[in-house]
Amino acid sequence: MGNQRVLLYLTLFFIIYMIWAQWQIDYAPKSESGTISQSTQINGKQITTEDIPLAVTTDSGQIISPAGKEVSAVSKHIRVVTDVLDVEIDTKGGDILRVVLRDYSVKADEPEEKLVLMTDADINYHIAQSGLVSVNKGTAPSHNAIYRSEQDVYRLAEGEDIIEVPLYWENGNGVTVKKVLTFKRNNYVIDINNYITAGSQKWSGSDYMQLTRSLPVEINGNAFIRTYTGGVVYNDEIKYEKYDFDDIAETNLNYQLADGWVAMIQHYFLAAWIPERGKDNLYYSRYNRNKDHYTMGTRTSAITIDAGQTGEINSRLVVGPKLQYELEEIAPGLDLTVDYGILTIFAKPLFWLLNAFHEMFNNWGWAIIFLTITVKAIFFKLSEMSYRSMARMRKVAPRIQKMKEQFGDDRQAMSKAMMEMYKREKINPMGGCLPIVVQMPVFISLYWVLLESVEMRHAPFALWITNLTDKDPYFVLPVLMGISMFIQQKLNPAPVDPIQQKVFQIMPFAFTIMFAFFPSGLVLYWVVNNILSITQQYFITKRIENS
After folding, report:
1. Rounded CA gap, 254 and 220, in Å?
2. Dist CA 192 CA 194 (whole Å)
3. pLDDT greater than 60 at residue 67
């Protein structure tokens, strides 16, 4: 029948969509909005990304300059512990070398093993650097400069809400820089404030911020839980533009943009540099072939400080989970790092509704169930019309079988007779497709909501379902979903075509196998939706058949 054929087509569409979505993550062609080669002038001199030094360190921690000369200063590490972060800072440049998220574990069943978001280890290398640059050489500390620190460990004490970590630098000619990293309670934003005091001459310069990481190594990955990992640039003009590792290796990014931010994002988490508002910024990328390191960064427009005066340059570093409502408050567009793709228009309201139910029940599983009930209630009348149409189709199924026997292989005559009967009985053969058509965008949107929302990461439901974003460990929900699909097929009119009949007999088993590896929260939605649909369709079908 028509509705069965459309169900098959929509199933095929969903599978193709999933393949397309994964292809977009791995191989999609990137925007050619272009590399805009521009730079900023300081006192009439050009400052470009070439002015940002590329020095590296030896194993001993001593600095090797671009000219190859070893600098005598040796850096040390500072540890900062807040209620949500455990951070390691290098006095070389004030680099963020390691970030541990204290509220997030690597695995749901091993809560003591906390997630390391940033590290200077060889595997999954990922650090944040910042520094100053000036046309007057030696008057601005880059990320290779050694700062002086007052202490080695900072801890957020009970009753305190802020930790300030001051770092000091001077060049011996009167220029001093105080770099202060500020950490706040229950906050994943690190404020970076540079207080620059000019010497006997004016000081002109700007700051830069960059994120450097190696290619991620997936540990215990799931083929159905793969999302974009790579760079992102945003401002009000270009909006949200991805720039992945292949792009960084092939072409140097060079955007001159007002405001905005730059980030390295991954599944559930991000690191993002947000320059001070009201500045023109040069967004850039680099690829270090020797170390296989990828860098995304930004350099702000310059400021001028009169001799003997103190000026200030500020920025913010976000390192942590992609908590949607918090990201909205931090910077415009930062919530887009929770990447729902083309279905954002459906996904955001779904998450809002899910979050509202979660606040009521304090359980994401019950939130999914009541979301399903709400969506079903919204489309109740539409479903009722469709199920009535299918019930009428089911009622006339014996007459259609007789027509098949009567007309044999004369498909044209068979179709004409069927259409005339549909007209007499006031049946819309496509009417049963509407619930499926409406439900498919909701289903795919919920897939991305469950996949992208860190709020639901490792969220338990009940009994054996201890993680709604992972597969059902005992495959109970996928089996229930397959059984519910089989029951639904029995309520629907059987296809006339024998091949279609065989295909639809296989579908519950095929979907059970496929959904066995989907997030259990998604399968929970589908099972509840099927149960509600079966209940509604059963009573409508009985009423039509008894009329």
Report:
1. 36
2. 7
3. no
Whether the per-residue pLDDT at 210 is higher than 90: the answer is yes
- pLDDT tens for 464-519 read 998 888 888 899 999 998 898 888 777 766 655 666 667 777 878 888 888 888 88
At the topology level of CATH, where does 31-215+227-339 sit?
A: Beta-galactosidase; Chain A, domain 5 (2.70.98)
Residue type (1 letter), 191: D
Four-residue CA torsion sign, 106, 112, 113, 117: positive
Single out the residue of 172, 177, 155 nearest to residue 93, CA to CA: 177
pLDDT given at position 518: 84
- Is 334 in contact with 234 (CB distance < 8 Å)? yes
Q: Which of 25-39, 46-60, 136-150, 177-191 has the highest mean pLDDT?
A: 177-191
Which ranges constitute the DSSP H helices of 311-410? 324-330, 344-361, 364-378, 380-395, 397-407
CA nearest neighbour of 147 among 74, 64, 67: 74
Closest residue by Cα to residue 166 from 140, 133, 195, 197: 195
The single residue listed with the structure tokens 């919920």 is: 446
**Joined tokens for residue 294:** 């990828």
Q: Which of 480, 453, 475, 304 is nearest to 371 (CA)?
A: 453
What's the pLDDT tens digit per position in 216-266?
886 555 555 567 899 999 998 888 999 999 999 998 888 888 999 999 999
Q: What are the pLDDT digits (tens) for 418-472?
A: 777 777 766 666 655 666 666 677 778 877 888 888 998 888 998 899 888 888 8
> Which residues are within 8 A (CB) of 94 and not within 5 positions of it... i.e. 6 or more apart?
130, 143, 147, 167, 179, 181, 192
b/e per residue 463-502 (b: at least 16 CB within 10 A): eebebbbbbbeebebbbbbbebbbbbbebbbbbbeeeeee
**Bridge pairing between strands 153-155 and 77-81:** parallel
What one-character-per-residue DSSP string does 393-457 give? Answer: HHHTHHHHHHHHHHHTT-HHHHHHHHHHHHHHHT--TTGGGHHHHHHHHHHHHHHHHHHH-GGGT
Give me the residue spans of the domains in the chain.
2-20+347-545, 31-215+227-339
- Look at residue 331 and give its three-state secondary structure: coil
Identify whether the C-beta of residue 200 lies closer than 8 Å to the C-beta of residue 107: no
pLDDT (0 to 100) of residue 3? 42
Does the structure show a pLDDT above 90 at 536?
Answer: no
Q: How far apart are the first and last CA of the chain?
A: 22
Q: Over 59-90, what HEC string results?
A: CCCEEECCCCCEEEEECCEEEEECCCEEEEEE
